[in-house]
Design brief:
By secondary structure, this protein is mainly alpha-helical. It contains six helices and three strands; from the N terminus they run H-H-E-H-H-E-E-H-H. A three-stranded antiparallel β-sheet has the order 1-3-2. Strand 2 and strand 3 form a beta hairpin. The longest helix is centred in the C-terminal third of the chain and has 22 residues.
C-alpha cells in the first residue's frame, strides 16, 4: 500500500501491525498514547493535565506521601513531580507538611479544594474509562485488569 507520493501508507490504529497482529509492546504503547490524548482532552476544560490528575489521585489515595514515593507511583521523574506539586500547591489543591522526624522530607496532602478538583476530574476520566470498559464484557474486563497488573508485576520483578 502506497501513498500518493510513493511512500508506504501508514495504517490506521487497528490495521496491519497497528492491529491484532502487531507486536504486543507496541500495541500497549499505542493504547497508552491514545488514552493519554483522550484523557488530556477530557481534562483540558478543567485546566488539568493527565500527569497532574495522576499526581493528585495518588496524593488523595496516599495522604502524606513523599515526593520521591509519588514519583515512583506516578511514573514521573522527581523533577517533574516537583513542578507538578508546585503548580498544584500554587492553585491551592495541595499542601506540604514537614515529616515528624525527618524535617527535610515533605509530606503531601490534598486540600479541600484539591479533593473537589479531583472529584470533577474523576467524573471526566470516568467517562473515558467507561468507553474502554464498554469494549469488554465484565469477565473480559477482569481478565484484562489481572493481565495488565501481572505484566507490571512480572516485568518489575525481572528487571
Amino acid at each position: 500500500m502506497k501513498d500518493g507520493d510513493g511512500s508506504p501508507a501508514i495504517p490506521r490504529p487497528g490495521e496491519a501491525k497497528r492491529g491484532p497482529e502487531g507486536h504486543l509492546g507496541y500495541l500497549l504503547r499505542q493504547a497508552s498514547v491514545t488514552l493519554r490524548g483522550v484523557t488530556d482532552a477530557a481534562l483540558a476544560e478543567l485546566g488539568v493535565t493527565t500527569p497532574q490528575f495522576a499526581v493528585l489521585t495518588m496524593i488523595v489515595a496516599y495522604p502524606g506521601i513523599s515526593g520521591a514515593d509519588l514519583a515512583r507511583l506516578a511514573f514521573l521523574t522527581p523533577q517533574t513531580i516537583n513542578v507538578i506539586v508546585r503548580n498544584l500547591e500554587r492553585d491551592g489543591a495541595v499542601a506540604k507538611t514537614a515529616h515528624a522526624t525527618h524535617g527535610r522530607i515533605l509530606r503531601l496532602h490534598a486540600t479541600a479544594r484539591g479533593q473537589a478538583l479531583l472529584k470533577r476530574c474523576r467524573s471526566r476520566v470516568g467517562e473515558v474509562e467507561a468507553e474502554l470498559a464498554a469494549l469488554l464484557g465484565r469477565d473480559e474486563e477482569q481478565v484484562v485488569r489481572r493481565w495488565l497488573s501481572a505484566v507490571a508485576e512480572k516485568l518489575a520483578d525481572g528487571r
